[in-house]
Please model this.
Amino acid sequence: MVDGIDGAYSQQTHWMNKPLLFCLITCLILDGCTLIKTSPERPKLTSDPLAASAHLIQAGQLGEAVALLEEAVAQQGENPEYRVQLNKTRLQKQSHERELQDLLLIEQTSALQKQLPIIVRLVRSDPANQALQGRLEQIHKDLKQNRRALSHCGWFQHSLNPKLASRCLTLALSLETDPQDQRLLDHLQKKQLKAQQAQEQKQQAIRQQVLKSRNQERLQQARKFHQANRLNEARKQLYLVLKEDPKNQQALQLLGVLKNQLEGYLNNLLKAGDRLYREGEVEGAKAIWQAAYNLDPNDSRAREKIERAQRVLENLDTLRKAQ
Model:
């Protein structure tokens, strides 16, 4: 009997402990899950990792490019191009991050410089304020540390990024003068000036080449107009050439020939108009003189003759109306 009771009690306690055991196992599983660190998702390897990494680099996603190339090296380590590109991208990423850190340093230092005079005025207004005193001391301390960091930036970046180095050194020297930093800044500024002058000379050479090519086309067009006896249009092309290149000998020579020809044509037209005018053909004379004027609008003779013919025609018209 006792054995039966003991067996029943044992069986009951066994089933009663099952929920407790279940909870214990569950807690262990959950705690274990929290302790297990999930590994970062490995980038999916594309068919052309080099092209994909180049696209990521162009988009400024250098970290993703490095991860992709690391995966390519891990899976296809026998390809030396992947390792070379990986090392190159790592250096590019480090350089990019260093530039951003230096830019952040410049912005932070500039902000502290702007805060400093305001804090000084506040301290003068309330000398007993310990919080303001502590803040002023901290700003001076931060500026001193930043000045050393800016100097380091200038020396580190002077061959990699001269413009950034100049900014760092200029800001550092505004905080405290230093002969070595000043010499480096002077060297960088002279170098940048030479580079700027060289760039301007290059641009000037390009503009001159474009100008030369354009004027050659205009000269060619002027010769075609001259051969087709379209003298006025040829002269316009030559004027465009001489406006940009007043000493162009080819244009000056051809313009001299055109002027002689135009002068001959103009005189012949004026004489023909005069003959018709004397014969009473005022309308015909005016048309001939108009052709002379169109040939050379700067010639005052043709303009005066047209005005005279117009007055005669108006008088004749008045007489006809009066009759």
User: Anything to note?
Assistant: The chain is about 85% helix and 0% strand. The two ends are 163 Å apart (CA to CA). The CA atoms of residues 35 and 124 lie 55 Å apart.
